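Hey, I was hoping to borrow your eyes for a little while. No rush at all, and the record is pasted right below.
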Amino acid sequence: MDEDDEDNAAIERLLRRFDQSKSSATATAARRSSNLQRLPCAEKDFTEDEKKKPRFRWYHAIFLFSIASLIVCLLQLFTAPPFGVWMTSAEIEEIGIAPEGGCEDGLEHCICPRETICATNMYSIVLLTLARCSAFFDYPLYMMMFLSKCHNINNICRRTVLREWIDFADMHKVHKLFGVVVGIETMSHSFFHMLRWGLNGDISLLWETNTGITGLITVIITPLIVWPMVVPALKQNMQFELRKGLHYLAVVWAMALLWHAPSRIYYLIGIPALIYALDYFFGFFMRNTLIENAHFERYGENGVAVSSNLTSPQNIYMYLSSNAPDSQIV
């Protein structure tokens, strides 16, 4: 009888374990189904949390650097050499670039350090000020557009004390916001320069100088880079691969800016662009992993769950390109 009791007890234990595992599997499936049903609510809560965030974000402080750069531009335009370019009519005449010899309209001071930024009358000075101030304002934004896409560097920084002040999850939002501002600035900057050249009879500078040629290149490709990513009608009617491919014209855009003017732009554009290139190639060659088998599952309208048999170290960064607007990767 003792052996029979022990056998029966063993069988009961096995049955209990089976029932527990079955219940656990059922509960897991129920939770999964419940999560799928609650996803719209979760998306709503996520949206509400986004709305509760303070309006002033860390990246808004970058506009303070833009204002500082704008002040530097104004000081440079309206102070005397060697810091500025505000010169007397006699100094302008001595340089020998201005077509009238010196300042026009009875002005005692004007601007003409080189041919492409020569403004010897009042309306030319106003147009030149508008053109240069728009570019100077965007210099910090130029740098952040490239640095915000250094995914590997940002992934390292987000695990440091810097995350106490900088939310590195905002980097795509930063790139998009600054890209829109720069897209508008590029067109306005080119417009004011071309209008000044046209009014002064110097429109040939557009194709006879490095500044004009590189500026023409940027003004042509800027809409191709920016508009397909921000204009809703274009986003809906253009294939994602086409929009993504056009966005990489930003490489040509950056190269054109490097030769746009003989100034500090070599450093302001060249260094961030170089950092981005090094980060990109490091990720491409050193942080690339082939996933043989991946399973994608829709969660609601804007969510996608990705699962695979990938075994990787902790804190890995995964970059996924999705053609679904406002999609959330789970």
Strands lie at 86-88, 109-111, 294-299, 303-308, 328-329.
